[in-house]
Amino acid sequence: MTKRILIVDDEPNIVVSLEFLMKREGFDVAVAADGEAALKSVEEKRPDLVLLDIMLPKKNGFEVCQTIRANPEWQSVKIVMLTAKGRDTEVAKGTALGADAYMTKPFSTKDLIAQVRQMLDAA
Amino acid sequence: MLQGWVIASISFAYLGVLFAIAYFGDKRADAGRSIIANPTIYALSLAVYCTTWTFYGSVGRAASTGIGFLPIYLGPTLMAGLWWFVMLKIIRISKANRITSIADFVSSRYGKSQLLGGLVTIIAVVGIIPYISLQLKAISNSFTILLHYPEIVMPARAEALPLLQDSALYIALILAAFTILFGTRHLDATERHEGMVAAIAFESIVKLIAFIAVGAFVTFGIYNGFGDIFDRAEAVPKLKALMTVSDTGASYGSWWSLTFLSMLSIMFLPRQFQISVVENVNERHLTRAIWLFPLYLLLINIFVLPIAVGGLLHFPDGSVDADTFVLTLPMAERQEALALLVYIGGLSAGTGMVIVETIALSTMVCNDLVMPVLLRWKALRLQEEHDLSGLLLSIRRWAIAVILLLGYVYFRAAGEAYALVGIGLISFAAVAQFAPAIIGGIYWKGGTRRGAMAGLTAGFAVWTYTLLLPSFAKSGWLSLDFISEGLFGIGLLKPQQLFGLSGLGEIPHSLFWSMLANIGCYVAFSLHRRPDVVEASQGTLFVDAFRNTESAAGSRFWRGSAQVHDLLPLIGRFLGPERARDAFLAYARRRGLASIDALEANADLVHFAETLLAGAIGGASARVMVASVVKEEPLGIDEVMNILDEASQVRAYSKQLEQKSRELEAATAGLRAANERLKELDRMKDDFMSTVTHELRTPLTSIRAFSEILFEDPKTDLTDRRKFLAIIVKETERLTRLINQVLDMAKIESGNAEWHTADVGLREIIEESIAATSSLFADKQVALDMALAGEVPMVRADRDRLIQVMLNLLSNAVKFCKEGAGRVTVRLGVDGSTVRVDVADNGPGISEADQHTIFEKFRQVGDTMTAKPQGTGLGLPISRQIIEHFGGRLWVKSGTGQGATFSFSLPMNREANEHHEERKAK
Questions:
Q1: Same domain membership, residue B881 and residue B743
Q2: Whether B700 and A16 lie within 8 Å, measured CB to CB
Q3: Nearest to A106 among B700, B720, B864 (CB)
Q4: In a domain, B641, yes or no
Q5: What average pLDDT does range B509-534 have in this prediction?
Q6: Are residues B197 and B236 in the same domain?
Q7: Which of B238, B302, B451, B703 ranks highest by number of CB atoms within 10 Å?
Q8: What local confidence, expressed as pLDDT, does residue B551 receive?
Q9: How far is A45 from chain B (nearest CA, A)?
Q10: Domain residue limits at B725
Q11: Does B787 share its domain with B804?
């Protein structure tokens, strides 16, 4: 079954690059440009993995992560935080809120794909 | 009519009344509503000074020496004037140190010496017991005389009466019982006996009334007023002599020394000390006593001379003792009731003296004589007793009984002898020996224990030799030889003419030599050695009593520690466990603590305990007892001196300190504010850094991602390839712009930017900016209107920077205009003293809330539905910085849906303008 990836980022160009990458790997892709849209998308069709930026309008990435984790139905959703914020405090916060992985921008495309594959294969 | 049983029952009734008053007084005191908290009662109680010696003896003395009876009352009157200094100080010291008696006072002052206390007690007892006997004699005589009414019969010599028929014995026993009942109900830590004081005040009134009654009767009843009496006296030569003061030197000497003596005895007689100091409730009562007591003395002495003269006129043959005139005159005139009243008056006078004196003496004997011996007597193992309060009370009671019985015994033994009759003044001379030690003690810090001991011993010895022994000799108990020949036959040692000093009466003579020896030895021995630690500290406490507050001074000199659970049982042994507990609890509460256990084991606590105990067993013994449980760290004399020095320095320093601390507070407040600002700046810097990194990483992410994609797969679709490369290029540009602006911002803010300031014309700058952005306008088909004023003054600014500002404003305006329908208007004009530029657009406008945000770094506002606005978010902040750098202002006027107008103004440069005008005119 094709895995579904939700990409959440407010930078259009980054969304383009991520979309291309994921599609190339054969995943289904959904896109959201802010926190609220992201949650709506999760409700509508549950993804297998979320690529989550932190600096988002409306709701930021931490809140989205927290909300997803609070819902028992979405326990199986993998969350990968993908952000330009790289300080230790933020990494810790993300992990504490339930993210499964944390990657900083700029990222290596190879590393990103490896990470995604590993998470989805393990599922 | 006046049979024995009538008189006896009236006497008993009177004593019953006294009993009732004393009982009532004590009850009210226990309930906390003291009836003696009244200055009048205090002043009246002081009249216990007037004993039967006043009541009967003054008339007797006046009958033989005329107004020679007066000095005894002049002295106290004069002294009352000095009370304000001396007595007040003594009272205050005694309250602060819980002094219980005159012996306690002396011993406490001189280093809490038990030896000194014992010496004072012995002197007091030896000097006062004969005085007590005198009272017993007077009372019993008056009883006997009254018994023979209406005949006037002089009482037989005392030893002729068999023991059991001697009324004096019964009087002594009854007084002992009365005194025990009201003097030793419990051990009060302040040693006050409120009921007794009330009874004594009552007695003062009774004796005054009685005396005035008989005096008035004699003067106006028997004779016709003062004038009548004295006229008749003039007629009799012997009596005439009584009216005048004789001219001999001896009598002057006599007057002075008697006055001096009575001045001392009004303070140092044990009963006077007890009433005026120990029983004093409130030191403010002293003010009334200062005039009320002399008034009392005046009133009770008005009729002395008339009665004396009247008696001599009435009984010219000398068969009736002058001492008894007060009683026998009304008897001779058949005034039964008056005679009874006089008898009661005499009874008042005598019983008052005996009760108070006995209580005072028994307290001294117990605290300063018996207890120290018992405590030292290891065999009794008193240290281990748990409750000694019962023992203390028993000792007191036995002391009272023994003293009274001794008084009786002396009375029987001495009878009519001189040794009794003349004893009044002799007792005064004995207590006068306390004067140097006490008065020196409260005014001279240099007085030491050795000095006091030496002085007291010397004075007492001289007194014994010059007064007491001769009185025994004159009574026939000792050979008269030593008076006439001197000791061992040495003429210079004649007791009444020591070292050849003759011509003085025996009292002045003795007074002179005893005071000389006393004061001399006191001063000499005190100067010989420095005071030790305790003497020095007590000296300071006493002499500086008016300056010190509470226990601060006392506890500073005792360095030691003791736990509450050691001190409490110790105190309990002497005061009783209940009272001790109550006292400690009250002390803890005064310090704001909830329970006794919270009390710290420090010097203050020890001092408190010691003071409390001193009330029961005297200062010296208290010190010994407390020392046994306290681990004291002895202070050297140097340390004590240092402490004393420190005290005065501390006062000076504390003022300086106060001021310094105020300055310090102000400085701290300033520092705190500066620190806050620094932290704020630091935080802002952190935020800036993190935002900048974030902003830089974002375009880099796209650049890297697409670069890697293209690199991975050379066979990427061409459309995609072109798209991706375009994005890379765009993001690179974006990144470059961002970096430039961040650097620009940083330079401007840190003051490192280079400014090329010159006179610039805004019109020209605007036109150039418009030209530069023309393609932007064309691409988005936004219209541009210009309203530029003609001649606009120059401003001083950096040309390139102003162009940067204009470009920023113009590009913003275009960015936010709707495509195809946009319109931008540029205005230039003069506004007051500034040149102003407006750039208005008809875009969506900026809400109130956002108007502040757009000037914040990296913040952009825009329609969130559309694509994220291009731009760095630094344009406006930088523009503002630039304008403000040149003294101008940059602001926005807008409302949602109403478009936005950005304006900036710059100050005109007048000089340059005038210069420019001139140049243009040329």
A1: no
A2: no
A3: B700
A4: no
A5: 88
A6: yes
A7: B451
A8: 46
A9: 22
A10: 662-747
A11: yes
Q: In this structure, what token pair is assigned to residue B606?
A: 């020890």
Per-residue pLDDT of chain A (123 residues; tens, 9 = 90+): 788 999 999 899 999 999 999 999 999 999 999 999 999 999 999 999 999 998 888 888 899 999 999 999 898 899 999 888 777 788 888 888 889 999 988 999 999 999 999 988 875
Whether residues A105 and B697 touch (CB distance < 8 A) is answered with yes
Distance from CA of B704 to the nearest CA of A (A): 7
Q: Tell me the shortest Cα–Cα distance from A103 to chain B, in angstroms.
A: 12
- For residue B38 the two structure tokens come to 């009244």
- 3-state DSSP assignment of residue B270: helix
Nearest CA in chain A to B731: A13
Residue B345, domain member (yes or no): yes
Q: Is B218 within 8 Å of B310 (Cβ atoms)?
A: yes
* Helical segments of B278-388, H only: 285-301, 304-314, 325-332, 336-364, 371-376
Asked which of B690, B725, B747 is the last residue of a domain, the reply is: B747
CA distance B806 to B748: 17
- B724 CB neighbours in chain A (<8 A) are 17, 20
Q: Cβ–Cβ of B727/A16 closer than 8 Å?
A: yes
pLDDT digits (tens, 9 = 90+) for B565-618: 778 888 887 777 888 888 888 888 887 777 777 777 777 788 788 888 877 777
Across the interface, whether the CB atoms of B693 and A16 are under 8 A apart is answered: no
Specify whether B725 is located in the same domain as B794: no
B188 is a domain residue: yes
Of B698, B703, B864, the CB nearest to A84: B698
* Closest Cα in chain B, distance from residue A14 (Å): 5
Split into its structural domains, chain B has a count of 4
Q: With an 8 Å Cβ cutoff, are B694 and A84 in contact?
A: yes
Tokens representing B506?
């025996």
Query: Which pLDDT belongs to residue B553?
Result: 45
A63: tokens are: 């809140």
Q: What is the pLDDT of residues B768-781, one digit of tens each?
A: 999 998 888 888 88
B693 near A CB under 8 A: yes
B588 vs B565, B577, B592, B616, CA distance in Å?
Answer: 14, 16, 6, 21
Report yes or no: B867 at the A interface, CB cutoff 8 Å.
Answer: yes
pLDDT of residue A123: 57
pLDDT at B383 over 70: no
Match 């946009």 to its residue by tokens.
Answer: B822
Residues B740 and B792 occupy one common structural domain = no
pLDDT tops 70 at residue B555: no
For B496, which DSSP code?
T
Residues in chain A within 8 Å Cβ distance of B706: 17
> CA-based angle B183:B380:B630, to the nearest 5?
80
Residue B867's pLDDT band (cuts 50, 70, 90) = very low
B658-695 pLDDT tens trace:
888 889 999 999 999 999 989 988 887 777 777 888 88
Would residue B797 count as lying in a domain? yes
Predicted pLDDT of residue B156: 59
Q: Is B712 in the A-facing interface, judged by CB distances under 8 Å? A: yes
- Kindly report the length of chain A: 123
For the four alpha carbons of B469, B473, B475 and B476, in that order, the dihedral sign comes to positive
B720 in reach of chain A (CB within 8 A): yes
- Please give the residue of chain B at the shortest CA–CA distance from A34: B864
B702 vs A13, A55, A110: nearest CB: A13
Q: Which residues contact B846 (CB under 8 A, 6 or more apart)?
A: B854, B861, B892, B894, B895, B896, B900
- Chain B: nearest CA to A59, how far in angstroms? 13
pLDDT value at residue A65: 92
Residue B717 and residue B592 in one domain:
no
Residues B145-181 pLDDT 10s: 888 776 766 665 545 566 666 777 888 888 888 888 8
Q: What is the dihedral of CA B200, B206, B212, B216, to 10 degrees?
A: -170
